[in-house]
């Protein structure tokens, strides 16, 4: 089974609208060291296509929707993101791809580490090899 969590963030709001605050040490699984966002992606483009050796991420679709395909080297699952108050928590050593972008899709990624190219596994066969070595398969 591919392990991931969906985190429902606390929504604060009133007649003026809604707000979600992500604060260190309260509703978040790690200290945030990097934030980036992606928008303007065509519907059938596939982004991601990598895994991380150490980095953890929470991905929030703050507008629109998209699908995340997660792969642990043995099984794949698809997670549909379309709620701006919900985050997809992905730990390390999970291959990820995302696609099926709505025209208004904006994806925000909150990362546990600063950018480090050495943390990326960009080749799927290398990913499978490293997963086998790490699990003694």
How many helices? The count is: 1
Main sheet overview: 5 strands, antiparallel
What is the CA-atom radius of gyration, in angstroms?
15 Å
Apparent shape:
globular
Distance between the termini: 16 Å
Residues in helix, %:
under 10%
Helix and strand run: EEEEEEEEEEEEH
* Low-confidence regions: none
Structural class: mainly beta
Describe the structure.
By secondary structure, this protein is mainly beta. Helices cover 9% and strands 45% of the residues. The chain contains one helix and twelve strands; from the N terminus they run ββββββββββββα. The strands form three sheets. A five-stranded antiparallel beta sheet has the order 1-9-6-11-4, with no helix packed on it. It has a five-stranded antiparallel beta sheet with strand order 8-7-10-5-12. The longest helix is centred in the C-terminal third of the chain and has 12 residues. The protein is globular. The mean pLDDT is 94.
In brief, what are we looking at here?
The chain has one helix and twelve strands; from the N terminus they run ββββββββββββα. With 137 residues, the chain is mostly beta strands.
Ordered list of secondary-structure elements with their pairings:
Elements (H helix, E strand, L loop, with lengths): L4 E4 L2 E4 L2 E4 L13 E6 L7 E6 L4 E7 L2 E6 L4 E6 L4 E5 L4 E5 L6 E6 L8 E2 L2 H12 L2
Antiparallel strand pairs: 1-9, 2-3, 4-11, 5-10, 5-12, 6-9, 6-11, 7-8, 7-10
């Amino acid at each position: 089974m591919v392990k991931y969590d969906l985190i429902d963030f606390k929504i604060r709001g009133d007649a003026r609208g809604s707000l979600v605050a992500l604060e260190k040490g309260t509703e978040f699984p790690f200290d945030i060291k990097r934030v980036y966002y992606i928008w303007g992606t065509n519907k059938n483009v596939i982004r991601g296509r990598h895994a991380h050796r150490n980095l953890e991420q929470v991905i929030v679709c703050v507008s629109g929707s998209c699908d995340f395909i997660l792969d642990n080297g043995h099984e794949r699952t698809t997670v549909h993101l379309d709620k701006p108050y919900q985050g997809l928590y992905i730990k390390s050593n999970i291959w990820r791809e995302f696609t099926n972008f709505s025209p208004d899709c904006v994806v925000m990624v909150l990362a546990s580490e600063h950018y480090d190219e050495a943390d990326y596994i960009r080749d799927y066969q290398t990913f499978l090899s490293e997963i086998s070595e790490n699990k003694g398969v």
